[in-house]
Specification:
mainly alpha, DNA polymerase, domain 1, hpI Integrase, Chain A, 3 domains, 3-stranded antiparallel β-sheet, 46% helix, 10% strand
Length: 402
Amino acid sequence: MLITGSLFENTVIRNKKKYRYYCYQWIDEYGKKHNKSFPHTKTGKKAAEAFQREIIQKREKGFSLATQDKTVGVWVSEFLLEYKKRKLRETSYRRLLVSADKLVPIADIPLDKLMPLDVQRLYNNLAEKGLSSSSISKVHKLLCEAYRKAFANKMIISNPMLAVDSIKTESPEVEIFTFRQIRILFGTIKKLRKGISPTNKKDTFGKHFNTRHDYELMFWMLLTTGIRISELLALEWTDVDLNNKIISINKSKAMGNTVNAPKTEAGHRDIPILSEALFRRLRAYQTRNGVTRITGPVFASKSGKMLNYQNIYHVWSHIMQVTGLKQPGGRAFHVFRHTFASYVLRTLSDIIPLVSLSRILGHSDVATTLRIYQHHIPNDNERILNALAGKRKSPNNKNQAV
């Protein structure tokens, strides 16, 4: 039985009636006994014999027999727990769990019996339910990773995901602030700091605004550097080099704030201070009341610790409520980041090439930047025509057209 397993007929009594069936029994590499039942028919016997040959073949090729009864759902859960959880932030791990929940229609299929058609039907079903291509793509990536690991561990003979096409994601145009909205936003913040409320709207605590922190500087910094909110909150004065106009982003510090924290090694980078106004404001903010701060968080709580994201979001929501502006979709503070990136692409592309912008934003590669901001890249034809028009109008151009 150790090599070939044992195929035999068995009988069970249910409701005083005898039922016969074929049973195949085998022992896995850990010495654990397994049983699989088949109907007591000619077809059932053939299926049992085919299963026996499959087990023998797997054993001879060194594949695991302990996972023979494992389903897609069980394996994906184990895969996330054993291979992903310890490597990811809690928020990232929870997102993977959300994707795993969408595998319910195929969760009970044996791991080695999943067919490419089963996966395609799942994707079609998710799309019919209104799931975005981006969300379906995350499900696809999770399945691909789980099955690659299963194949590497010799849990399956072949990987069905190799025959499943990747999901083409449609990148929606990101939301950005218009110049008018920026004026309204920062104009409102200035009024609130002076104790002037443009409306009678109050926050949930019955107050108009907490003026202890310089939110104008905080949001201006988000707007003119493209920095993430978690990176901003984790920023310390030792990371700010005003002499060279450089802000150093420390990935390990920002990881302490899991909301929008850097996702890749590219999160550890240097960002140039492009705004002269930001430079002057930071220098003035560093030296207040005759004291120059050289250590500690740039934006600190009363106890000197890093500010809490939820508190900042509460203030932001109140500001947006007072301005009457529409709250941007997606991550609340990413609208500043998107506005910065689109501005650079539209007006500073000759000075700051795409590869440099990608580095400033902390993207893993240029392809990521291109995918997100493709709608904001100036049209090449428009740029050529404008350059040509400028050349024709130049008084120093001897070949100027008449």
